[in-house]
Amino acid sequence: EKCWRLENGQWWLYKRGYPEHTFSELAVQVIGQYLGLNMAAYESVSREEIGAVFNCRAPASMTVVKTPDFSKGRLNFEPAADLGCKRNDAGKNLQILRKFSPTAAQEYEKMVLLDALTYNLDRHLYNFVFSGTRLPGRLFRWRLSLITISPFPWR
Question: SS3 sequence, the chain?
Answer without folding.
Answer: CEEEEEECCEEEEEEEECHHHHHHHHHHHHHHHHCCCCECCCEECCHHHHHHHHCCCCCCCCEEEEEECCCCCCCEEEEHHHHCCCCCCHHHHHHHHHHHCHHHHHHHHHHHHHHHHHCCCCCCCCCCEEEEEEECCEEEEEEEEECCCCCCCCC
